[in-house]
Amino acid sequence: MKVVNKAFASNQKLYIVVPFYCFYVDLKSTKQVVCMTEKQKKTEAEQLKAQLDDYTEQLKRLQAEFENYQKRIAKEQAQFMCFANEKLIAELLTIMDDFEKALPTVKDEGIKMIYKKLSKLLESQGVKPIKSKGEKFDTFKHEVLCTQESDGEEDVVVEEIQKGYEMNGKIIRYAKVKITKAKKSVGGGDKNE
């Protein structure tokens, strides 16, 4: 049994102090309330600190996730803006093809000026023609429409039937080309037969 060091009454409350414990009894309600010991205060403080550290860690993770989310959304919006007009630009490319076919026969400087402006407009949007003639056939850039037999190197683009274009590094129209194929030997037997 613990020894009572002090006991005093105040405002209808009885305070009893024993080593490491403090009790008070509310004389009105006769309800006993226990004060914490120093050890209990320290452990509770440690628990609260651990809980605070846990909440801080969760907050940091959530903040990092939110920042990553913002970056991802900004990147997706930029990509959307880059490729939002892709269909319109693809339609403009057919007009560009018509201009290129007509330019050699047209002597009107106004038409040539419109062609140059259209070319600059497409260039400002990141649209570039794909270089094809004389290049090695690339399935990611070219679409083969026909072949031509040749003694030279195989799978080389000899004619560009329709220009291909890329926009900001993405192919928006494949180049339609004619490529070389090796000549086939006819007969396949000995000449002495």
Q: Please report which band the strand proportion falls in: under 5%, 5-15%, 15-25%, 25-35%, 35-45% or over 45%.
A: 25-35%
Contiguous helical run count? 3
Stretches where pLDDT is under 50 for at least 5 consecutive residues are 1-8, 30-34, 188-193
Q: Give me the strand/helix succession.
A: EEEEHHHEEEEEE
CATH topology annotation of the domain at 86-182: Nucleotide Exchange Factor Grpe, Chain A, domain 2
Class derived from helix and strand content:
alpha+beta
Q: For the record, what CATH class of the domain at 86-182 applies?
A: Mainly Beta
Distance between the termini: 126 Å
CATH architecture of the domain at 86-182: Roll
What is the strand arrangement across the widest sheet? Answer: 1-2-3-4
Nearest-integer average pLDDT:
79
Task: Summarize the biggest pleated sheet.
Answer: 4 strands, antiparallel
Going by CATH, the homologous superfamily of the domain at 86-182 would be Head domain of nucleotide exchange factor GrpE
- The backbone outline, from C-alpha atoms, is elongated
Q: How big is the Rg?
A: 42 Å
Number of strands: 10
- Helix amount: 40-55%
Write the layout of secondary structure elements.
Elements (H helix, E strand, L loop, with lengths): L5 E5 L2 E6 L2 E6 L4 E4 L3 H47 L1 H17 L6 H16 L2 E4 L11 E9 L6 E6 L1 E4 L2 E4 L1 E8 L11
Parallel strand pairs: 6-10
Antiparallel strand pairs: 1-2, 2-3, 3-4, 5-8, 7-10, 8-9
Helix pairs in contact: 2-3
